[in-house]
Amino acid sequence: YGMFLPANNGTPNVQVQSATDNGTYSSAFTQTTDELAGETDWNKEWAQISYVNTNALKYFGQRLPNSVANNTWTRMKEINLFLQEIDKHGLTTDVTNKFKGQMYFWRAWQYFELVKLYGGVPLVLTPQDPIVSSGPDNEIQRSSSSACIEQIVKDLDLAISLLPGKWTGVDNGRITSGAAAALKGRVLLTWASPLFNRTDDRIRWERAYQANLAAKTLLEANSFGLYKVGGTANGVAWGNMFTADNSIESVFSFGFNALTTGNPQKNNGWEQATRSREINGAGSISPTKQIVDAFPMRDGKPITASSSTYPYSDAKFYKNRDPRFYKTFVYNGAIWPYSGATNYKQWTYVWKKTATAGYNGTTETKGANASGIYLCKANNPNANNSIGNFSNSPTDYMEIRFAEVVLNLAESAIGTDKLSEGFEGIKSIRDRAGILAGTDGSYGIGNGLSRDQLFAAVLNERKIEFAYESKRFWDLRRWMLFESGATTARLGFAPLNGTRRTGFYIGVKTTAGADYVGANDPLLKPATGTAPLIDRDPATYPAGITTYDQYLDYLYDNYFKVSVRDDLDKTSPANWKFTWYPQYYFFGINQTVLSASPYLQQTTGWDSMNGGGTFDPLK
After folding, report:
1. Confidence of residue 128 (pLDDT cuts 50, 70, 90)
2. What is the pLDDT of residue 19?
3. Contact at 8 Å (CB) between 367 and 277?
């Protein structure tokens, strides 16, 4: 577990294991989406990079170092050794079965991490002899992607048969049969998706459907389900589930603790990373306007089709939104509680100190994040800041939530033309979120949708439900949605290629509508005297206003001007746009690995210097 899961102060919500060869985490995959901005190795201009070394992920493996390291094949070797030796030492079957079940899960997990990046990889199912340097025993070729998928499924079936549906006491948090079944559903859904399934083979969709149906049934039999404690109104249950102990939503989680010293210390770095610098957080994660805009209105309709009952306005973009919006984002003036400061308000507005300058005054004197909006998803409102930061967070991270099983099943059902069943799955997620059903009972989605329209609906729902949970990159990739092509056309999606990810400026204006110009914060009352424009936190509100929410609306109506901030992505060159290159749908093997293991085939589309790769990951 320790070799696979995040290290102390890891932030798994925006990071993925797979970016390096040593099991550590990186945010590069999330930056290769519409969730975070920034250039990565995978959206640099293809002609200007040494891609066989720099851009061919090292996660596949590197030449053996002089000491044992935590990397892909070390983990695989330890698993294979364990499985080979466990039955030789007189332990009871009850003990060995549970051990082996967990190991089969982790071997399947490791192979799936490889296959979804590279396609087929060498299947090594027994420990290799380290003394033999060459020959058929150690020179194992890449197996086909289909053979690898079958091995992954075989291991997961063994795990399902050997593991309990629940663990208790000190074993709580170990892999369960339901977690193995849920991973099997995720694997077969990926195998059925357009990245691997270019002909839309319904047999693959049916297999994914059956696996996800079995997972949901098994989990429900063991008391897992959508977390609804506290009620679904206004997204209360949805927001609380991320910090609830032993949440029924948590199918498979990465465990953390609140220890401050010693080897067992494993704190979740998410709380510290997301909190603003004004309260001694890191303020290092800047959500994009693109994801903010993706959240629908209170009635489930997109902002581009908002109703007269729940209208959308750029000037007050935070009004009338999906309840999950308020449990995911912190906008200028929003209340963001933590221990000892239950009414803390986060201000992110800016102003001009001179008439000819841009926005160079800010409320965030300790340093602002890049996009003018913060993430509060999975923040604990009782997080302890008494030591000056939030670094000792024990909040577990749910890698597989029950909601994912529901949406995996819904997508698989749509794939097998069980459209009404798929639609019901999407609606159940929106119902739990607190979105209104509407007079037509569609939760804003609309009725009578085609197969492709429902595919689009389920992918949009995943984009919102799992925002900043390290799922977006894999969804964009398995549906090939980065660029214009068959799937973007089918689903009616605009490709990410050719776009820039942006943020918000909440600028201060005068009541006459002009930009405010002044040296001091225009809405902050000094120790003596009055605020230059108006006090953002007055002792009494203006006539007709009785609540803080009403007063914040008043400030936005009269003193705030919302505009787009376009410096999150590169500004040099000025015309830089996000670009995805199709070679990255299946990564190549790093050149150092090929040099040490020349018998391995390179992936097609890679290594053009040596005539191109010959391994077809679609087989």
Report:
1. confident
2. 41
3. yes
CB 39 within 8 A of CB 569: yes
Among 468, 268, 282, which residue's Cα sits nearest to residue 369?
282
Tell me: the pLDDT tens digits for 69-87?
888 888 999 999 999 999 9
Q: Are strands 374-375 and 397-401 parallel, antiparallel or unpaired?
A: unpaired
The DSSP output letter for 398 is E
Residues 6+ apart with CB under 8 A from 330: 336, 346, 373, 374, 375, 376
Residues 145 and 274 placed together within one structural domain of the fold: no
| Phi/psi at 97 (5° precision) | -60, -45
| pLDDT higher than threshold 90 for residue 245 | no
**593 and 560 part of one domain:** no
Question: Is the alpha carbon torsion for 54, 56, 59, 65 positive or negative?
Answer: negative
Tell me the C-alpha distance between 505 and 508, whole Å. Answer: 9
Tens-place pLDDT, residues 256-270: 999 999 989 999 999
Query: Is residue 486 a part of any domain in this protein?
Result: no
Q: Containing domain of residue 56, as a range?
A: 52-163+588-618
**Mean pLDDT within 50-66:** 70
Q: Is residue 157 part of a domain?
A: yes
Residues 511, 599, single domain; the answer is: no
| CB-CB neighbours of 566 under 10 Å | 14
Residue 340 lies in a domain: yes
The bridge status of strand 350-351 relative to strand 361-362 is: antiparallel
Query: Sign of torsion, CA 549 551 554 556?
Result: negative
Q: Which CATH number is 129's domain given?
A: 1.25.40
How far apart CA 300 and CA 309 sit, in angstroms, is 12
Q: How many distinct structural domains can be found in the chain?
A: 2
Which of these, 281, 247, 470, lies nearest to 393 by C-alpha position? 281
> Please, which pLDDT band fits residue 375 given cuts at 50, 70 and 90?
very high
